[in-house]
Design brief:
The complex is a heterodimer of chains A (about 425) and B (about 325). Chain A has about 425 residues and is of the alpha/beta class. Helices cover about 50% and strands about 10% of the residues of chain A. In chain A, the strands form three sheets. Chain A has a five-stranded mixed β-sheet with strand order 2-1-3-11-6. In chain A, strands 8-9-7-10 form a four-stranded mixed β-sheet. Chain B contains 17 helices and no strands. The chains are: A alpha/beta (about 425), B mainly alpha (about 325).
């Protein structure tokens, strides 16, 4: 009995091993074949799933591939998915040749050793604005070049403001903005909408107020930080901002504004095309600082990066592809389709000449600040998570702004 | 959807065992005549299943365990040289201020959902077993929540429960009740996701319990009626006891399914605000994927705690079932 069961076990183990090695062999040779015979195919991953085959973006990728003499295989991922996908691919030594990622992710991927620095890949970054490039730098090295930038500002509905008797020129700092919101509410309209959701989006939207108060990311528990969070909290308490901001993404917040009842909305460059479709007269105002002037807003937008490859012979062609994507003419075309501001002064001037509406946005991008700048690098994600948690705790009434930020700072350490 | 594939599997397990205990005796006789080939054929038939189990169950479980026992940073995740740290990740998770609320929310969410899903499902099943006009059509309509993709139903719930423009608050307003911040208040968010999940879980309970009711012979009810048992007595003395095996499997499947509910909570509240609707499932995701800088180790540790919880209840079920089979 014992020996027979043991024999049975061995047989199971054996047959399994045979089958496993069989599968392993076939899959191994299969993937080797794919890489070997398709060495003329270069893969590009981007966070623009909205662009289908036949769109200007995909045509541009094909054209750049043709120019470099290779075929381009492109995959579009959801932004929030792309960083994890890139990490997993790197773990399997199966990275894309060109990776276009959201700028705060660059330092994380660089830390993981997934990206080559511009020293190694010879990508020219000299034309890009230094404040934008900073988001892709850590420890004195640069990992890629921006393909386009966006940032946040306040959209306002001219009709609602007129009915409430608010002169937009009077809105210069937090006090005058809050006064304007009070007037709008008294006139029976809604004040302001933004996104305070418990994700990176929430931190992104809170940062202009945080920085506008003079707070620093290294000290979440400062009095300035508390004043920024109290500003939001008071808006909710007074009914100037809807309670739904706690769960709003930037898209849902935009939909609220597009309904036509809101006086203000904090949103990004990328909504410009939608603003034209909204069917009402709108204006754009830089986000004011606590005591006047413009607050620094965080930079959004993606970087073109070149992941490390086992086969170093691929870099030369990859570099040609990346350079083509960020050439002056192509940047202009791409950033126009994306509704982004270009990362170089030359293209920005061209954009403003073609569309005067972009002028305040170009100014805002010039004044913007990278989230991972100041050499925060991979500590930014930890700070950001605690920051959005503090915002959520304070706005939902679980904690006071001061307590929420104090525990956030304690959790970062 | 996934649940439907499970019941036959579980139910057939004892049958398969029974067959196995009967089969062996004739085997040695045949084995003496032709010693090897049927054995090898048997193993060859077994290989695909073993392989499938090893590749898609054992290996991922092993990987998850391995992830939870090492100190992964993004760098060591890519290069694969994460140092072994033993139960360090579990200690981190246990010491985390989120642990206690997450445990409480998971227990509350699972218990409340199960009780209501089962009670409502059973009530509806008894109601529909009385074959009135349109009962089939109505029963089909009750299946709608089950057929809808979770992302659709969860998004719809989050629109309906929106504080400012949701239809629920509009209805409350019409009744003269002050609006409730369903998804954005720490004291209501867990209730909101529980309500949505009960709505989604009722059809499954309805379908399984309804089919269980079909197997109770009508003659029992007739006999009881002749003996003068009222409707209430018939339910407690006949329906409920005879439905016990079906109820057990329904509750077990419901438990495992509810423990790991993720989509509804994530879409409706992201586990917030201020962790007020965080369960182990959303916490595990939050740790592993919800941040720009993933914490795979602690995320996997939380996932493993969930697996263990589900396993414990599965074993309890098997034990109870065996006891029932013996008695």
């Amino acid at each position: 009995m014992h020996s027979s069961s043991r024999r049975r076990l061995t047989a199971v183990a054996l047959s399994t091993v045979v089958a496993v090695t069989g599968a392993a062999c076939s899959s191994g040779s299969g993937s080797a074949d794919a890489k070997g015979s398709d060495s003329g195919t270069y893969t590009v991953w981007d966070p623009y799933p909205q662009f289908a085959k036949g769109s200007a973006w995909v045509k541009l990728l094909d054209a750049c591939g043709a120019k470099a003499g290779v075929k381009v295989k492109r995959t579009g991922y959801d932004t929030s998915d792309l960083a994890n996908k890139a990490l997993l691919a790197a773990q399997q030594d199966n990275s894309a040749d060109v990776l276009i990622v959201d700028n705060p992710v660059v330092s994380t991927l660089a830390e993981a050793g997934v990206l080559t620095s511009t020293e190694d890949n010879k990508l020219d970054t000299s034309k890009a604005d230094p404040n934008l490039l900073a988001a892709g730098q850590s420890d004195g090295k640069t990992y890629g070049t921006p393909i386009g930038a966006n940032t946040l500002a306040l959209y306002y509905n001219k009709k609602v403001l007129k009915e409430a008797g608010v002169d937009i020129a009077s809105v210069k700092d937090w006090k005058s903005l809050t006064a304007a919101l009070a007037k709008v509410k008294a006139a029976g309209k809604k004040g302001i909408t933004f996104s305070a959701i418990g994700t990176e989006e929430g931190s992104f939207q809170f940062l202009p107020w945080f920085w506008g108060a003079g707070a620093e990311l290294t000290a979440l528990d400062s009095a300035q930080a508390a004043s920024a969070l109290s500003l939001w909290k008071d808006w909710l308490k007074e009914g100037y901002a809807p309670n739904s901001v706690i769960n709003n993404t930037q898209t849902t917040s935009w939909q609220e504004f597009a309904g036509g009842d809101y006086a203000f909305a904090e949103n990004g460059t990328w909504q410009l095309a939608n603003a034209k479709k909204a069917g009402f007269d709108y204006g754009v105002l830089p986000i004011p600082g606590a005591d006047g002037g413009s607050a620094a807003a965080p930079t959004g937008g993606e970087f073109v990066t070149i992941p490390t490859q086992g086969d170093t012979g691929r870099y030369a062609t990859t570099q040609k592809l990346a350079t083509c994507l960020t050439s002056t003419q192509n940047l202009y075309d791409t950033d126009t389709t994306l509704s982004y501001v270009a990362p170089t002064s030359e293209v920005q001037a061209k954009q403003v000449a073609a569309n005067a509406e972009l002028k305040p946005w170009v100014a805002a991008v010039k004044a913007a600040k990278g989230r991972t700048s100041d050499d925060l690098g991979t500590t930014y994600p930890k700070i950001s998570e605690q920051m959005w948690k503090a915002v959520q705790s304070a706005l939902s009434g679980a904690k006071s702004p001061k307590d929420a930020l104090a525990s956030a700072q304690a959790a970062v350490k | 959807m996934k649940q439907t594939t499970h019941p036959p599997d579980h139910l057939s397990a004892p049958v398969r065992n029974g067959a196995a205990t009967v089969a062996p005796p004739p085997a040695p006789a045949r084995a003496r005549r032709r010693p090897t080939s049927p054995q090898w054929a048997a193993w060859a038939f077994l290989a695909p299943v073993t392989l499938y189990l090893a590749l898609f169950y054992a290996y991922p479980l092993y990987r998850n365990l391995d992830l939870s026992l090492r100190d992964y940073t993004v760098r060591s995740f890519v290069q694969g040289n994460a140092p072994f740290t033993g139960i360090e990740n579990y200690r981190t998770v246990l010491d985390d201020p989120t642990f206690a609320p997450a445990l409480l929310h998971t227990a509350l969410f699972t218990a409340v959902c199960l009780v209501f899903q089962y009670a409502i499902g059973l009530a509806l099943a008894v109601f529909f077993s009385r074959h009135f006009r349109l009962s089939a059509t109505l029963r089909a309509l009750f299946l709608v929540p089950w057929l809808l993709p979770l992302i659709v139903s969860a998004s719809t719930w989050s629109w309906m429960l929106n504080s400012d423009s949701g239809v629920v608050n509009a209805a409350l307003h019409a009744l003269g009740i002050a609006p409730v911040n369903w998804l954005t208040s720490p004291s209501w968010s867990l209730t909101s996701v529980i309500i949505a999940n009960i709505w989604i879980g009722v059809p499954f309970n309805l379908v399984v319990l309804y089919s269980g009711l079909q197997s109770i012979p009508a003659s029992l009810y007739e006999a009881a009626a002749l003996d003068g048992a009222g409707a209430w007595q018939r339910f407690w003395r006949i329906t409920f006891p005879l439905l016990r095996p079906v109820s057990a499997i329904t509750l077990l499947l419901g438990l495992i399914y509810t423990l790991k509910v993720f989509d509804i909570i994530w879409i409706m509240t992201k586990g917030g605000p201020a962790d007020s609707s965080t369960t182990f499932a959303t916490w595990s995701y939050q740790l592993g994927f919800g941040n720009l800088l993933p914490a795979f180790g602690p995320g996997a540790a939380v996932g493993n705690l969930l697996v263990v919880a589900a396993l414990v209840f599965g074993l309890i079920y098997l034990k109870v079932q065996r006891k029932q089979a013996l008695s």
